[in-house]
Amino acid sequence: MNIQMVLLPVFVQVGLTFALLFWMARARVGSIKRGETKMRDIALRQPAWPAKPTQVANCYQSQFELPLLFYVLVIFAWFTKQTDLIFLVMAWIFVVMRLVHAYIHTSSNHVPTRFNAFAVGAIVLLLMWIIFAVRILII
Q1: Looking at residue 110, what DSSP letter applies?
Q2: How far is CA 126 from CA 1, 35, 79, 92, in A?
Q3: CA quadruple 131, 137, 138, 139: dihedral sign
Q4: Taking every pair of C-alpha atoms in the chain, what is the biggest distance, in angstroms?
Q5: Label partner for 32 (CA 20 to 30 A): which of 21, 76, 82, 109?
Q6: What is the number of helices (H) and of strands (E) in the chain?
Q7: CA–CA dist 53, 38 (Å, integer)
Q8: pLDDT, position 45
Q9: Are 49 and 10 in contact (CB under 8 A)?
Q10: Using CA atoms, how far apart are residues 35 and 116, in angstroms rounded to an integer?
């Protein structure tokens, strides 16, 4: 397994994170320019943003939660030579579920559907960690 194949899902996840960052910035600046939000009301991180900027910001924030475990696992798996086709397929499933989760989160925000996308990704990531741990511990 070459490094490009292993890192491509990571690059997509990082791309999602930056796309959400720029979208959040645009939404927040737009809200301030339109007068929907006053600087004094958000200066100390008060939750005074309108729904859409909050929705995008929450989605952005979630990219620093579960994906952190994904990043760490990719690093560990690469350095211990535990990346294979199963790992790669599961990595892509995780990243695709993060993309689906982000789409739902920033569009309809239908919580049951959003939760299902999150749960599938979380379960796949958990299985990745279990497989990795078993492989490392039985060596």
Answers
A1: -
A2: 21, 44, 19, 14
A3: positive
A4: 61
A5: 109
A6: 6, 0
A7: 14
A8: 84
A9: no
A10: 36
Query: Is the Cα dihedral 122, 47, 54, 64 positive or negative?
Result: negative
Residue 128 has pLDDT above 80, yes or no: yes
18 band by pLDDT with thresholds 50, 70 and 90: very high
pLDDT tens-digit readout, 28-72: 999 999 999 999 989 888 889 999 999 999 999 999 999 999 999
Question: What radius of gyration, in Å, describes the C-alpha atoms of the chain?
Answer: 18
* pTM score above 0.90: yes
Least Cα distance to 67 among 130, 114, 128 occurs for: 128
CA distance 55 to 24: 9
Q: How far is CA 133 from CA 2, 7, 82, 99, 139, in A?
A: 21, 20, 10, 26, 10
